[in-house]
Amino acid sequence: MSGAHPSPNCGPRRGGARPDLIVIHYTAMASCIAARARLCDPAAEVSAHYLIAEGGRIEALVPETARAWHAGAGAWGGIGDVNSRSIGIELANPGDAPFAEPQMAALEVLLAGVMARWQVPPERVIGHSDLAPGRKRDPGPRFDWRRLALNGLGVWPGLGDPAAAFLASARAFGYPEAPPEVLLAAFRLRFRPAASGPEDATDRALAADLARRFPVDGGAPRA
After folding, report:
1. Residues 146 and 170 reside in one and the same domain
2. By Cβ atoms counted within 10 A, which residue in 3, 65, 93, 127 is the most buried?
């Protein structure tokens, strides 16, 4: 850990919850210093457990045992209070820039440690845009989810049944209830950022594979 900047914006996890999700964000601010100031400002009422600077410096803002205020309104599977069940990681990035190699390398080290400490499986490393489709876009189309998956720190879909119902598959993987076009946009933001137009067979096949291999909230993988 490179440094600690305790944020007052936190509290106890509700109902004795333990973190079993990790949520990745971008700060959408001009600099890491500006992002840190906001995440530690009581008036802002936002925070995260960690902030990673462009150069790879990891700053601890909220203890992992505490509830940070990063997820807001949203859901994943049967979880409505995502803040009580998650670790939030902010990446200093304006939202439209590539993520620097030192920053991604630091994220990988941090993720590996958090996942080991809390027994978080790769499929429960998600983006803010996943739990709040239509409302949030971070970590955005330039974030390298495939890289995380190749290192066992996330998941990436193969091709499943192209005739499966996209909406049902996306919900089975964990996406919350939302209009079909909103879920499709959130799904593509993460897994097919270059795709456009109506839902197609590739969307259905990718979502079906994720639903089959990684059913949300402890469901047994289907053969």
Report:
1. no
2. 93
From CA 88, how far away is CA 25, in angstroms rounded?
Answer: 8
Q: What's the start-to-end Cα distance of the chain, in Å?
A: 40
Torsion of CA 161, 76, 35, 40, to 10 degrees: -160
Residue 222's pLDDT band (boundaries 50, 70, 90)? very low
Full-model pTM: 0.96
Q: How confident is residue 77, by pLDDT bands cut at 50, 70 and 90?
A: very high
pLDDT for the residue 221: 44
Examine the fold and report which residue of 150, 182, 203 is the final residue of a domain before the chain moves on.
150
Q: Does residue 191 share a domain with residue 108? A: no
Report how far Cα 150 is from the mean position of its chain's Cα atoms.
16
**Domain shared by 184 and 140, yes or no:** no
H and E: helices and strands count for the chain: 7, 8
Confidence band of 217 (pLDDT split at 50, 70, 90): confident
Q: Give the chain's domain count.
A: 2
pLDDT score for 220: 45
Q: Which two tokens stand for residue 160?
A: 């499943």
90 is catalytic: yes
Containing structural domain, residue 53: 3-150
In a domain, 145, yes or no: yes
For residues 76 and 178, what is the distance between their CA atoms, to the nearest angstrom? 12
57 & 137 share domain:
yes
Q: How confident is the model at residue 207 (pLDDT cuts 50, 70, 90)?
A: very high
Residue 56 lies in a domain: yes
Distance CA 115, CA 118 (A): 5
